[in-house]
Amino acid sequence: MAERLSPRDRPRTGYYKQLHNLTTDILYKTKTEKRRKPPEDIFYEVERIISRRVINRTNKYLIKWKNYSLFNCSWEDEEDLTPDLIRTYDRPPVNTERLHANLDTLLQAIVVKLKSKARPPSSVSFHHDCYRHCFYGKGRLSQDGKSVFLDRHDFGDFNYFTGWDHCLDTNGDGVIIKYPIKIRSLLSWSPKVSVIQNRILTPAPRMPQEKLLVDFIRQPFSVLST
Questions:
Q1: Which of 10, 42, 50, 137 is the most exposed place for a label (fewest CB within 10 A)?
Q2: Where is the protein situated, by its record's location annotation (predicted)?
Q3: pTM for this prediction
Q4: What are the pLDDT digits (tens) for 29-38?
């Protein structure tokens, strides 16, 4: 996603606010004091927006910076991002290869849950911008607004193989998905650890972990009953 932002030394939380509070009245001393020209703007490219949250009625966005590690992700104010980037948040463009990789991971989790008798929801790694791209405007929200209930036709654009929502043995007996499928996006973080920097114990950066919780009812099925 080729979007550019305001100047920054390196991706880190709240840098823009610090930068905007600076003045250009930066002086250096020689025989006479002269005004130093402000440095030219340096722009950093956004790879994708991972998530959004509201703090004190202000939208903040979790940014994955292009050519930077996930450990360098940072929360940025909406006012510091380009309008085009904000406009595409709900339905962002996604590279086809990355989209297919995420959809394959989701399908694998569904097949494993169909095969398993375990009742808890399945947790699957899934990029949240891909999730918005695939499911924005689809399904029905749960009462708490945290999950979405999806029917079979909501998966119709993904080119999944025929019978992907069945799990049968060689006799044609098994289970199928009883719709809807319940999906919830979940953002967590890598563990908190500390490191030594300049002889000072400092909290280490943490990596966001994008997941989906997938749940549905398994319904008995037999080809002889159809």
A1: 137
A2: Nucleus
A3: 0.79
A4: 434 444 454 5
